[in-house]
Design brief:
Length: 312
């Protein structure tokens, strides 16, 4: 099993403490797994340049980030899955949030990816086009979100397990291939077409609900109002939202407010002012909630943001 650090260009920008939390594992020729489990007291940015043509899929487990892949700008959230392809020399950058960042990334040689995707049927056609066009230019696509069960049972276990040596490599490869297979899975021949259509419609409605909440984080709608916006009844909305994102509607709102609060603190905003923007009249209540969410106090994030930058 080969374990590699980020390439030289990235390594120059990567703090020692962060490099220890990023592991690149060559599972087989043309297939590399990257496990990233990063936590910093303040937001920071990184840049990477591809050494070879690449096709990759990223499974985002914790928080999210803003990415720029050769001008293709997109933002990720917890449980999001994104695919990307680019030629040798393609540049990408992302901003690591103060709340931390955990992802599983599967990087494939485009020829290997195209060979697999060509056997997956019509459902994989857009990804197949991306893989085949990797040498010509960069492209991105958002895929089906991870279900909470998938995130817990497969992706999370890749960061914490009792395997070592070749057994660990085999375990990680099986998990990575399982996550990939879930993205390519086609409905069984006996599935009813109406049920398949309904399932995809629910997924779109939940994505619409999440995006609407994110756009109205300071004044979120009631459950009934949100259900009316996405065209579903409130009971079904609550059940489907939890199934899709692993939290309640208002649990999602709290999470987004906390992530935004971490960003404000990292920029030097006072704890009391940050608490008010997060919807807390009591700074102590905010501090308790912040510690439950991030396992550190807001004052610690603020102190780190005000600390002098280290050089050398």
């Amino acid at each position: 099993m080969a374990v590699r650090e980020p390439d030289g260009r990235m390594r120059q920008q990567w703090d020692e403490g962060l490099r220890d939390r990023v592991e690149a594992i060559d599972l087989r020729p043309g297939m590399t797994l990257v496990l990233s489990d990063l936590a910093t007291p303040a937001s920071c940015a990184f840049h990477h340049q591809e050494a070879e043509d690449v096709f990759g899929i990223g499974f985002h487990l914790k928080a999210g980030s803003r990415f720029d892949l050769d001008g293709h700008v997109f933002e990720t959230r917890a449980l999001d899955v994104w695919a990307g392809a680019g030629p040798r020399g393609a540049g990408s950058s992302f901003r690591l949030p103060a709340s931390g960042f955990r992802t599983v990334s599967l990087r494939l040689d485009p020829a290997l990816a195209a060979d697999w995707l060509a056997q997956a049927g019509a459902q994989a056609a857009p990804l197949l086009a991306m893989a085949r066009g990797a040498s010509q230019g960069s492209a991105i696509a958002r895929l089906a979100s991870l279900s909470p069960a998938a995130a817990a049972a497969q992706a999370e276990s890749m960061f914490s397990n009792s395997y070592a040596g070749i057994a660990r490599r085999l375990f990680l490869e099986s998990c990575a291939l399982g996550l990939l297979a879930a993205q390519l899975r086609l409905p069984g021949d006996g599935d009813d077409a109406v049920e398949r259509h309904a399932g995809s419609a629910i997924a779109r409605q939940m994505a619409t609900a999440r995006d609407y909440l994110d756009a109205h984080i300071d004044d979120p709608p009631t459950i009934v109002a949100l259900a009316r916006i996405v065209g579903i009844n409130d009971f079904k909305l609550k059940r489907a939202f939890r199934a899709a994102f692993g939290t309640t509607v208002f649990g999602h709102v709290r999470q987004r407010r906390m992530e935004r609060a971490a960003g404000h603190l990292a920029e030097g905003m006072a704890v009391a002012a940050t608490a008010q923007l997060a919807g807390y009249e009591c700074p102590r209540c905010f501090a308790d909630a912040y510690r439950r969410h991030f396992a550190i106090l807001p004052s610690q994030t603020l102190r780190s943001a005000k600390a002098p930058a280290r050089h050398g």
